[in-house]
Structure formats: structure tokens, C-alpha cells
Amino acid sequence: MSTGLIIALIVIVAVAVVAAVLMSRARGPRHGAGLKRRFGPEYDRAVARHDGDTKAAERELAERVERHGDLRVRSLEPAEREGYEARWTAVQERFVDAPRDAVAEADRLIAELAAARGFPADGHYEDQLAALSVHHAHHVEGYRRVHRVAQAGAHDAGAGTEEMREALVGARALFEELVGPSRHEAGRHHTGAEAGRTSPAAGRGHHTPSLFHRHQTKES
Asked: Where is this region: Disordered (predicted)?
């Protein structure tokens, strides 16, 4: 075997190893402490659902990472972002007079927004929730709760007003994460601001209005 061929084989093997390492990092941790760090409260919830069987819970979470860890989140155009924010504000305002309808709309809005960002769509709630848990583990419970309350209301087994309010408040955290810029976008906006190229949207920020909190104070 010639020296050139040996060198070529070494290079191929080295590239394959580097690619495998990068792919593994992109998919994130798959076992034990790594999964617990990544999923946070979702890890504890999975363990509880498996009656304390940590191994079974970790297998489930590792499967979620395998299926959805490489998902590429799509950026929102400024007009899209503003549209979703306006619709969420309308949901909050509607809650005062029609809380059940507002919760149902919040459930649909988050599903639509998640689909717009690239998460599973077409009514596949469980698959969408699993993907969201991989990328937004600390806030996905809010979506789960508002969906559960909305579904109960659709079958005339509705929750009380306070439970609906809490569900909507919990769902808002995930909404704000989804409607805001991704890490890549945030870095780009930060660099632009340092260079004196701050856009109107960056100056406005992406925090949704606090009308719902004002209504809460009025109700209490």
C-alpha cells in the first residue's frame, strides 16, 4: 500500500470521527445526568410517569432527542412575529369575558406558532409536544396544561376560571420563547446593535404586552 493511500485513509477516518462527535453533540446528552440537565422538570415528570423507573424514563427521553434533536428551527419574519404577538394580546383580552374560548384559542395559537417555527404540525399534538420538550423543556408543561384544559372544555368537562387562568399564564412562557428570536438570531441582533445597526424591531423588543396581568389585578 502506497504512502499516499495510507494518508488518504487516515484522513477519511479522522473526518468520520469528527463528524460522529459533532453529530453526537448536536443531538445532545442521551443518558443519566446529561438528560436530567437537558430536560429539567420534564425528566422528573418522565420518571414519575414510569412509576420511578429511571431507566425507562431515560430511554423515552433519549428517543425524543434521537427523533427531534436535529430539528432546525425556522426564523420568523418581523411581520409574522408581530402578528402572533397581536393575536396573543387578543387572547388575553378575550379571557375577561370568555375564558373558555380564550384558552382554546391559546392552545391553537401555540400549536400554529410551533408549526411555523418548524416543529411537527398537522394536528400531531403528541409529536409536537415531544419535539418542543427537547428544545424548550423548561416551558413545555405550560403548553401541555393549556391543551389539557382546552380539551376538557371542548367536552363539557371544563375547568374553573382560576384553573384556566393559571393554564394561560403557564402557556405564555412557551409562547414568548417561540415568538422571540432564536439564539442564532439573538446573536445576530446583538452584533448589529453593537455596530449601530439596531432595527426598529430590536428597539421594540419581543415581550408581549401585559394587558392580561392588568386584567388579573382587576379581577382579584
From this structure: 183-220
